[in-house]
Design goal:
Layout: H1 17-40, H2 49-58, H3 79-87
Length: 88
């Protein structure tokens, strides 16, 4: 028998049911906490939305465009910096 082949005396490793259940629950809780943090503690502020939508409406005709449109975003991350400082 080849060295890498499985035999009846050497079955593949399979974690126990309690381990798999706990792992699945932990992944679910982690996902729920992440979602709560992202949607519950975050607020979004849009500045100049009316003007931006007006520009997009003017550019609907592809053949009439003579220049490209470049957009940018600015964001500040305060909490992540604080968390990194606590972790050190």
């Amino acid at each position: 028998m080849r060295e890498g082949a499985m035999s009846a005396s050497n079955p593949p490793f399979c974690p126990s049911l309690p381990w798999r259940t706990t792992s699945s629950m932990l992944m679910g809780v982690t996902g729920a906490l992440s979602r709560a943090f992202l949607y519950g503690l975050n607020n979004m502020e849009v500045t100049g939305l009316d003007k931006f939508l007006e520009i997009l409406d003017k550019r609907k005709d592809v053949k009439a465009r003579d220049r490209g449109l470049i957009t940018g975003k600015e964001f500040y991350v305060f909490l992540a910096d604080d968390m990194l400082m606590v972790a050190k």
